[in-house]
Amino acid sequence: MALSTWLVTGASSGIGREVAEQLLQRGDRVAAVARRTERLEELIKQYGDQLWTAQLDVTDTKALRAVVDRVFAELGRVDVVFSNAGSGAVGAAEEMEDAAIEQQIALNMTAPIQLARAVIPHLRAQGGGRFIQTSTMGGQITTPGASMYHASKWGLEGFMESVAPEVAPFGIAITMIEPGVVRTDFGAALSIAPAIDAYAVTPVGQIRQYIEATGGNLTADATGDPEKVATAIIDSADVTPAPLRLALGSDSYTAIKSALERRLADLESTKPVAFATDYAK
Description:
InterPro entries: NAD(P)-bd_dom_sf, SDR_fam, SDR_oxidoreductase. Belongs to the short-chain dehydrogenases/reductases (SDR) family. Keywords: Oxidoreductase. This is SDR family oxidoreductase. By secondary structure, this protein is of the alpha/beta class. The protein has one domain (5-275): NAD(P)-binding Rossmann-like Domain (Rossmann fold). Helix content is 47%, strand content 15%. The protein has helices at 14-26, 41-47, 61-75, 98-126, 147-167, 203-213, 226-236, 250-269, 271-276, and strands spanning 5-9, 29-34, 51-55, 80-83, 89-90, 129-134, 172-179, 191-192, 245-248. It has a seven-stranded parallel sheet with strand order 3-2-1-4-6-7-9, sandwiched between helices. Helix 1 links the parallel strand 1 and strand 2. Helix 3 runs parallel beside helix 4 (98-126). The longest helix is centred in the middle third of the chain and has 29 residues, at 98-126. The protein is globular, with a radius of gyration of 20 Å. It starts with a strand and ends in a 5-residue tail after the last helix.
């Protein structure tokens, strides 16, 4: 397999960091973007010019576009863009603070959309490439207490699914990665909304109790292996045709399959009503 150049956002921790490390170990060139580039110092020392870095808050659209332009100008070609930056928030919809809602939409949905918009002209000009987007099993399922997280991911998946056929004629393929719960620091960085007492005996209250029982880190004993997840993501870049969605983890596969079956059953149950609203022939 020929070595390639990857652009990775959210590269300083979690799945992004694991992907970057595996790529560097096999000899690929990596443009690693992160808010805290000091966390990449060890890799910079080890890999030198093989690793290109830039400090970036991906929610700053103007700065994001500037970094993307620099990457393509300085590296010449990017074969794979791995859009990975994201975060989670917990709380009932009523409990969520305005700032937390805005942050979830800005980071999990708007930033990846703007990244795609920024790189597509470059990928089109070079004759193609891959855009791999970290989503989640939460892009197809829902749980109480994570409404804004799901809203951001469902919106992102709708965008990516719509854009995929738009850019396919240019040799650009899109894959959405849908991991289950993975053993990274994602769970320890959750934004927790201030509690409203009325929700204490609801499913949201139960989730709060579980978070407290785990010491605030929901992913410490997760099913997903970050090393295996990263390997699967890297391998997906060589699969042709590119999978539009890739569930990773038995928990992800099982939960998504169950949700799709329930949704299809609900649709079938309302079929008579749907057809009854057509104009009479």
